């Protein structure tokens, strides 16, 4: 039976994949994920298992899988030459290529160096599978018994078409592990199935009776105060229950930090600064981009929001899906506290202001705009 697990941040998604693979030594298992960073985390956990890296497990990034297992092996049915396609072109496809149509495989999917445009890898794979009468999927089923897809919410466009073919293959079992709140990437920029991006991926799952869905709502990373704030960004998804004790910590929860107090806050709590990108100089030289910290944990975080994020928190204005996901990722990296940098001295949010000890203690009154 195909399964999908909708898992909250900090619920142990990677451990779940690794432990399941360890318990099935009789199956040939492929684990896929989107980024090299996530692949490294999975490989590290696999190497840490008793007995080392299991012989029955293979790991790949999604792009590597699409190129090496879906496009290149049977490319001859579309290219006429077995080794015509070389690699992946990550730059944007020229606009004029779309007028050629999929019937012109070379002109539509490939650049002049015979590389496949990354945004069209899944579609190219689907075309080759169609032309080979399903041999792409049959070949995969001969190699692996089970496929686990980590960060499945990053799939979109023709990725979902190919995923559907894999799900319907009776010789394969698929496990999709996703957190639609962490959809900070999209595997391709095509507009097909746009409604299923981000939080819409759960709808895509629900529409398929051949997927058994479950929720994983326990968080082992963050204290409940942080979980509650993160949950409020996605009120339609199941609430998260923290299994993290604050212990003897007294600085716990989410606070506003005035930009003039950043240095004092850093000196007091040594937080990890998180920003949108490196153009934010106040975040400091050791800051990390909030979209690139999935899977990481820090005791304390100092978040430098973009203006749209600040407006969302302050006024409840609509926030673009990728930015909302990045905000969720940033908040849920913290175990004990999140400081949110602001230029204002008062706020409409329910978050208290943090101020240095040598200043008068201040807090803001909640007016219920968002939290």
From TrEMBL:
Cited Pfam families: AAA_19 (PF13245)
A GO molecular function held by the record: ATP binding
GO terms under biological process: recombinational repair
SUPFAM superfamilies named in the record: P-loop containing nucleoside triphosphate hydrolases (SSF52540)
InterPro entries: DNA_helicase_UvrD/REP, P-loop_NTPase
Name this protein carries in UniProt: Uncharacterized protein
Organism: Enteractinococcus helveticum
């Amino acid at each position: 039976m195909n399964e999908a697990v909708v898992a909250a941040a900090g619920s142990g998604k990677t451990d779940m994949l690794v432990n399941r693979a360890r318990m099935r030594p009789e199956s040939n298992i492929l684990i896929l994920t989107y980024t090299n960073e996530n692949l490294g985390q999975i490989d590290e956990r696999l190497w840490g298992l008793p007995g080392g890296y299991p012989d029955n497990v293979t790991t790949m990034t999604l792009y590597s899988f699409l190129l090496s297992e879906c496009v290149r092996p049977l490319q001859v049915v579309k290219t006429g030459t077995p080794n015509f396609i070389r690699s992946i072109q990550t730059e944007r496809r020229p606009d004029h290529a779309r007028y050629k149509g999929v019937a012109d495989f070379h002109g539509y999917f490939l650049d002049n160096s015979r590389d496949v445009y990354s945004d069209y890898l899944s579609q190219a794979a689907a075309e080759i599978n169609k032309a080979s009468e399903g041999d792409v999927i049959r070949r995969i089923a001969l190699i692996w018994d089970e496929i686990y897809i980590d960060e499945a919410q990053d799939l979109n466009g023709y990725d979902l078409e190919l995923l559907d073919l894999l799900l319907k293959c009776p010789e394969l079992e698929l496990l999709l592990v996703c957190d639609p709140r962490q959809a900070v990437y999209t595997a391709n920029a095509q507009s097909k199935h746009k409604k299923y991006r981000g939080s819409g991926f759960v709808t895509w799952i629900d529409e398929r009776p051949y997927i058994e869905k479950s929720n994983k709502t326990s968080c082992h990373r963050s204290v409940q105060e942080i979980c509650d704030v993160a949950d409020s960004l996605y009120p339609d998804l199941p609430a998260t229950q923290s299994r993290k004790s604050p212990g003897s910590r007294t600085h716990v929860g989410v606070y506003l930090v005035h930009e003039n107090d950043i240095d004092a806050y850093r000196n007091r709590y040594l937080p990890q600064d998180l920003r949108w990108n490196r153009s934010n100089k106040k975040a400091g030289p050791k800051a990390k981009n909030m979209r690139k910290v999935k899977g990481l944990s820090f005791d304390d975080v100092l978040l430098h929001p973009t203006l749209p994020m600040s407006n969302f928190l302050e006024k409840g204005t609509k926030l673009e899906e990728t930015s909302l996901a990045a905000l969720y990722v940033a908040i849920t990296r913290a175990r004990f506290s999140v400081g949110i940098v602001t230029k204002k001295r008062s706020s409409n949010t329910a978050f208290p202001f943090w101020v240095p000890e040598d200043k008068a203690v201040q807090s803001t009154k909640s007016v219920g705009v968002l939290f």
